[in-house]
């Protein structure tokens, strides 16, 4: 059964963060809060964990549209080809925030993503998510957890999430109620930004 770890966004407990990180380092799967909906995540460098997430989502790993959750923009060049100044300015304006930016992938992407030409980058405005990534020292790969209910698309109550996922994942991080709106997805691989999905993030940043 999964561990249920309570964390506070204002001041996440470093001991509890390190428990979550240990699970990630051992190839575990976590559910954690972001500035939008709760996400399903694992260590980006662990192929077995990535395969587990793809299996849970019912997709082939090579074709999965997972985002990379980063602590800030300092590691961008590890996963993204060199970007121009206008693109970087958009990222600086928007992040941390409820956006996923699709950017051109670099040659140093983890092995399973090598063939991908693009990568989705997220820097959520959520202290818990960023503290986990900072302590792990590399991004986590992430995908939203959907609800089967036709009325609400995402489960927002961490206790209900735990009830449903406790035998599937290794840790559920309770960071309070989540949102029911996903991130705004913007493709920045071309000369002009293209909005792929309008979500919580405002388009004023463009």
Using brief descriptors, characterize the structure shown.
single chain, 206 residues, alpha/beta, ten-stranded mixed β-sheet, 10 strands
Protein described:
The protein is built from 6 helices and 10 strands; from the N terminus they run E-H-E-E-H-E-H-H-E-E-H-E-H-E-E-E. It is an alpha/beta fold. A 10-stranded mixed β-sheet has the order 1-8-2-3-7-4-6-5-9-10, with helices on both faces. The protein has helices spanning 14-25, 47-57, 76-79, 85-94, 127-136, 158-165, and strands at 3-6, 30-32, 39-43, 67-69, 99-104, 118-122, 140-144, 171-174, 184-187, 194-197. Strand 2 and strand 3 (39-43) form a beta hairpin.
Number of helices: 6
Sequence stretches where pLDDT stays below 50 over 5 or more residues: none
Give the fraction of residues assigned to helices.
Answer: 25-40%
| Average pLDDT figure | 93
Count all strands and give the number: 10
Strand order of the largest sheet: 1-8-2-3-7-4-6-5-9-10
Structural class: alpha/beta
Radius of gyration: 16 Å
Shape: globular
The biggest sheet, with number of strands, parallel, antiparallel or mixed sense and barrel status, is: 10 strands, mixed
Fraction of residues in β-strands: 15-25%
Query: What is the H-and-E element order?
Result: EHEEHEHHEEHEHEEE
End-to-end distance? 44 Å
Describe the structure concisely for a colleague:
With 206 residues, the protein is an alpha/beta fold.
Please render the helix and strand layout as text.
Elements: E1 3-6, H1 14-25, E2 30-32, E3 39-43, H2 47-57, E4 67-69, H3 76-79, H4 85-94, E5 99-104, E6 118-122, H5 127-136, E7 140-144, H6 158-165, E8 171-174, E9 184-187, E10 194-197
Parallel strand pairs: 1-8, 2-8, 4-6, 5-9
Antiparallel strand pairs: 2-3, 3-7, 4-7, 5-6, 9-10
Helix pairs in contact: 1-5
